Amino acid sequence: MHVSKNNSEKYYPVIIVGGGQAGLSISYYLQKSGMDHLVIEKTTVMNAWKHKRWDSFTLVTPNWQCDLPGHSYDGDDPHGFMSRDEIIAYLERFAEKVNAPVLENTSVNKIVSRGISGYRVETSSGIFLTDQVVVAAGGYHEAIIPRMAERLPETIYQLHSEQYRNPQQLPEGAVLVVGSGQSGAQIAEDLHIAGKKVYLATGDAPRCARFYRGRDVVDWLADMKYYDMPVHEHPLREAVRDNTNHYVTGRDGGRDIDLRKFALEGMELFGSMSGFDGDRLLFKDNLTENLDRADEVYNNINMRIDDYIAANNIDAPGAYSYEPVWRPGQARSRLSLADSNITAVLWCIGFRPDFSWLDVPVFNGMGYPQHQRGVTSQPGLYFIGLPWLYTWGSGRFSGIARDADYLCRRISDFSVSEGAELKSA
């Protein structure tokens, strides 16, 4: 029941901010428990998946890991990797099943605490009052583009990874991809396969094997219970939330991404980009370090799988260690825009969070929310869908159901205790 507090305010016991897979997962469990709620979505349900992925995008984890509430992977290729369009179709079927009470095309402008009376939610569609708020808006809000981008010539076509769709989108000429994380490495590969001349400014992202000793690495890690490890048991603790994702791909049935192999085929690799002097792009002298570190992580993951196979006496193909197929020569710290014929720059250096609309004291100095398994220090305020909210899968299709179920039980407990307090007052 939506009780009108006055002519302009409506009340819901729970308001969910964000209509992606995380927000709809919360709605799924709230509906099961009979709790009235409203999902507020800035654009439309699942918008990010429909408009912020390039054409050749695929999952990097096997399809069987898609396990949203009441909607496990329902195709016929559990060890394959869904394409962008298949992912969208999967999510649309999930949204149809949940049938959440969603208010679309509505921006949340400000949320403030009302003390023991809950929260005031100011939106482009009016003001709402609520006892509890679940922030399901993710943590990738503002595309990071460095200030040096302003100094590049106007003739250079610049875009962020979230704007990239396909190689045909770019002008004729070479392209510089800045960043070798999951998006940067896959987009560089996409351009390389299309025959574009690619310059890649690498970063410190790790990589992993796609298949090892007869199975997908994800299958091995699942058996090893890595994906069940809670953040407080991880060797890095909460610091793991800042880690860059390993680069690998599910394209064409899945394979490794080996930047050294690309270099043999004509892609030119550099260290991390550090500036622009008016004519030349500047890079750090850390290409060898970046490549070696990525390969070290690759081999370390495989060695942990070796240990697991040995400890459990599993019959599997033989072990091996990756050996570099190419090594950098003399480091190059400068690259002339004119001489290289670079006509486009793709910034693949991630996102920063923007929770400026949430006026509640739960953030650290970097703007990230502080919480324990999504539960903040502010009564009735929760987060879901963030990387390593509780486990590795918290920001992915594989772990959202567990997080949503847990938070919904906390929401229900809060409602019961709040009602008891009101009765005794």
Automatic annotation (TrEMBL):
Q: Which GO terms describe its molecular function?
A: flavin adenine dinucleotide binding; monooxygenase activity
Return the InterPro entries for the record: Auxin_biosynth/cation_transpt, CHP04046_FMN-dependent, FAD/NAD-bd_sf
Report any Pfam family annotated for this entry. Answer: Pyr_redox_3
UniProt keyword annotation of RNA-binding present: no
* Stated name of the protein: MSMEG_0569 family flavin-dependent oxidoreductase
User: Which NCBIfam families does the entry link to?
Assistant: MSMEG_0569_nitr (TIGR04046)
Lipid biosynthesis in keyword set = no
Which organism's genome codes for this protein? Answer: Exilibacterium tricleocarpae
**What Gene3D superfamilies has UniProt attached to this entry?**
FAD/NAD(P)-binding domain
Keywords associated with the record: Oxidoreductase
